[in-house]
Amino acid sequence: MDTENPGAATVEELTTKEAIAANNWCLIESDPGVFTEMISGFGCTGPEVEEIWSIKADAFRHLEPIHGLIFLFKWLDDKPAGRVVTDRSDIFFARQVIPNACATQALLCLLLNLQHEDIDLGQTLTDLRNLCQDLDPECRGHRLANEEKIRKVHNSFARPELFVVEESTDFIEDDCYHFVGFMPIKGKLFELDGMHEGPIELADIDQQQNWLDVVRPINEARMERYSVGEIHFNLMALVSDRQRCYERKIQMLVNLPSQLSHADRQAEIANLRSHVRHEKEKKRRYRKENIRRRHNYLPFIVELLKQLGETGQLMAICDKAKDRSYLCKPSKDTRDQQPQ
């Protein structure tokens, strides 16, 4: 523990909290900075996660190569959108056997099916893939549940709680949100959802076709199934590290022959260096945000409320907040005048 910053904690210290039992997994925030740091925590190098703000093709082009998509949506107990495949031992797929693990499970299913020169899985994930090679999806789910390092990285993003509420062992509750993965594997588009018995084969991908053009209509259709006004979706892309991509392009322009003129080459190098600075700033922001996520602000908040109560200021602040809340509420007459 950092003695100069008592709210900060390491991965190991955070996972010893009483709020997280030995075999429990915490909820994970759908944020690219969180997922990118989890990848690094697993020991994997080369990929990162970017948020997708639009389903249109232009929102994807500047991020390519995109290795997979992670989709967060309100879970419905519906039939799968395609054929559930149970005879593909060449696809890494694990059933979700523990609550709250769907974020890490969706991410791992993408990573462990990746074969790309930009990606180095590292020792932990390589060992996990080798150990699970001859296991069925159910056993793989249990093996993943018992992978201590992965659980520690996952639970390092647990939020501090004043009170521990015993969680239900049921997976699905009302307004439950769920992570699934989408990726191309050997000419077909698959959905990797741990709530099913196997990967879901969604579509064929032609040799000259970009797999993103196949998956976009499927995601659009899924979003349209929900009621009007439902905005609780989140789409993230698993991509090659953007900083590395830009730095590699700079090295190619500097060291290899190019058809560009000297002036155009220098302009392109300057543009790429600007992108590198942006990526470095983004990673710095991710680190700062994740430190804040892990920081335990509860002792400060409790002490502040205690001091306000002892000095007689707390009730006045509460009354002021109640008055302000009352003023913000529309009156009955105003509500009656609103269109139905």
TrEMBL record:
The keyword Ribonucleoprotein does not apply. Coiled coil: none annotated. One of its GO terms (molecular function) is cysteine-type deubiquitinase activity. The record marks D193 as: Important for enzyme activity. GO terms for biological process: protein deubiquitination; ubiquitin-dependent protein catabolic process. InterPro entries: Papain-like_cys_pep_sf (IPR038765), Peptidase_C12_UCH (IPR001578), Peptidase_C12_UCH_sf (IPR036959), Ubiquitinyl_hydrolase_UCH37 (IPR017390), UCH_C (IPR041507). The active site is at C102, H178. Residues 24-240 form the UCH catalytic domain. Signal peptide: none annotated. SUPFAM superfamilies: Cysteine proteinases. Belongs to the peptidase C12 family. Catalytic component of the polycomb repressive deubiquitinase (PR-DUB) complex, a complex that specifically mediates deubiquitination of histone H2A monoubiquitinated at 'Lys-119' (H2AK118ub1). Mediates bisymmetric organization of the PR-DUB complex and is involved in association with nucleosomes to mediate deubiquitination. Does not deubiquitinate monoubiquitinated histone H2B. Required to maintain the transcriptionally repressive state of homeotic genes throughout development. The PR-DUB complex has weak or no activity toward 'Lys-48'- and 'Lys-63'-linked polyubiquitin chains. Catalytic component of the polycomb repressive deubiquitinase (PR-DUB) complex, at least composed of caly/calypso, Asx and sba (MBD5/6 homolog). The PR-DUB complex associates with nucleosomes to mediate deubiquitination of histone H2AK118ub1 substrates; the association requires the positively charged C-terminal tail of caly, probably due to direct binding of DNA. Interacts (via ULD domain) with Asx (via DEUBAD domain); the interaction produces a stable heterodimer with a composite binding site for ubiquitin. This is Ubiquitin carboxyl-terminal hydrolase. The lineage of its organism: Eukaryota, Metazoa, Ecdysozoa, Arthropoda, Hexapoda.
